[in-house]
Amino acid sequence: MSDPVLRAFFLGRALAQAVGEQIEATVTNGLSELAKLDAEQRERLRQFSQQVMEKAARDVEGAASSSGSSTTTSPFGSSNGDLQVTIDELRAEIARLRTELQLYRSR
Fold it and tell me: Are residues 50 and 62 in the same domain?
């Protein structure tokens, strides 16, 4: 291997492979961190939504107990978080409250 051109070729090839491996490792780590941040953000959003729903449920229960209302249904749907069920139950609760408000105003 005394030919300088041949040595330069192998040196260049080894350098290109090493740089390629470094770039691959950097991109892989970057994408991994990005996915991790995305998952953490989704979990924070889920926890925040759950806290808001629990607070609203406590407020509804507190309002119902202070007004003497006898609602026995859960105001926010099943525990699995079915959004459509929650929306339907909230709409029904709003309709019931509007009816009670109209009856109160007509007295």
Answer: yes
